[in-house]
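Subject: Predicted fold for Glutathione peroxidase, 158 residues

User T.R. writes:
Posting the sequence so we have a shared reference for the thread.
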Amino acid sequence: MSIYDIPVTTGKGEETTLTEHKGKVILVVNTASKCGFAPQFAGLQKLHETYAKQGLSVVGFPSNQFAEQEPLDGDALTRHCQLNHGVTFPLYAKIDVKGASIHPLYSHLTKAAPGFLGSKRIKWNFTKFLIDRSGKVVKRFAPTVTPERIEAHIRKLL
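User M.O. replies:
I've generated the structure tokens; pasting them so everyone works from the same file.
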């Protein structure tokens, strides 16, 4: 199964896939608006603004699995991230990124790019996955790796 075939839900509750991002470099991030890493939204937005015309898609998948740091849903979540963090890149519906109910997208991502010492489990908010234009998962970045530190990797793929 291709990353583009995996069903996802938009922040407005519409069923879709990542097909609209086909042929682009994609940065997938599990987000949480109340997380201590939430200031990374600004760096993600800057990447989006700087490289979207060159073919970068930054996409956020909110999750409430880590200390319940994403209490918001849908339009309320989108508005909060726009007003408080300047986010204009797509935020999809809240999903599970670990455990028995892991979303198929994150099951795919974690198998394709294991973390430290081969761990597949997402350990916290703002874990990032970089996907090339063909849909191949190229690299996984820990939550502590800021968007600015990922920029060089993105430029290589663009």
